[in-house]
Amino acid sequence: xxxxxxxxxxxxxxxxxxxxxxxxxxxxxxxxxxxxxxxxxxxxxxxxxxxxxxxxxxxxxxxxxxxxxxxxxxxxxxxxxxxxxxxxxxxxxxxxxxxxxxxxxxxxxxxxxxxxxxxxxxxxxxxxxxxxxxxxxxxxxxxxxxxxxxxxxxxxxxxxxxxxxxxxxxxxxxxxxxxxxxxxxxxxxxxxxxxxxxxxxxxxxxxxxxxxxxxxxxxxxxxxxxxxxxxxxxxxxxxxxxxxxxxxxxxxxxx
Length: 255
Ligand code: ADP
Hints:
The chain is of the alpha/beta class. The chain has a single domain, classed as Rossmann fold, CATH 3.40.50. 38% of the residues lie in helices and 25% in strands. The chain has eight helices and ten strands. It has helices spanning 49-55, 79-89, 105-115, 120-133, 149-161, 179-195, 207-210, 235-254; strands at residues 4-15, 23-34, 38-42, 64-69, 72-73, 90-94, 167-171, 199-203, 215-220, 223-229. A six-stranded mixed β-sheet has the order 6-7-8-3-9-10, sandwiched between helices. Strands 2-1-4-5 form a four-stranded antiparallel β-sheet, covered by helices on one side. A hairpin with a 7-residue loop joins strand 1 (4-15) and strand 2. The longest helix is centred in the C-terminal third of the chain and has 20 residues, at 235-254. The site of adenosine-5'-diphosphate (ADP) has 12 residues, from strand 2 and helix 1.
């Protein structure tokens, strides 16, 4: 059995906990991710997907409950330790790419290593290798606005991978991409997952994107409502099943 790389227990998130607008967005969620999995998180808008991924990835801290990443209890770390821990363990990819507009793609990718004061030669080597793998070498000296959406997203992937994290956290990474770039990105994710053994946790609302994962959890009203593993299904069978679950969900909302 593979190792557990991420574990959440009884995760509760209350926004504005101490005001009359207090809102409980997660109601005691239990969740485990095993090494080498590619897990998708689906659910209707407002169901708590972003809250969930933020709270299992050190971006936000849960109101109560436990999060362990690679065996470490996140709550016990100081802010400084969390920063270092992220650098050593996690890579993040967001819908908006989050590249710095005034820096070239090279500088954006190199950023985590420059901040960690890595040797310049080693930085150049790593950035060039990754850019070559992601086929964006020609963009390295360009600013983000001079690149296509797909190139920017691949730049963001290089930045997420440059410190060799063993877990990638992605929140709607294809949200701003057209369908050709979206499926190309999913093939890159599958390759990272299969060949580099990177564990991936990804939020998506799109059944086609979800069909690239190995397991899915469906969140509704701040709780895990269902799970689905790809198992022996072909990608097409898995996709059909995901569409079915999503449309049952939508029918439930209409009725
Ligand atoms: P999803 O990603 O599934 O669309 P979110 O995690 O963004 O859902 O939101 C879940 C619920 O929590 C929603 O009802 C949303 O309005 C609420 N919420 C999200 N962020 C905040 C916040 N910062 N303050 C208060 N409520 C929030």
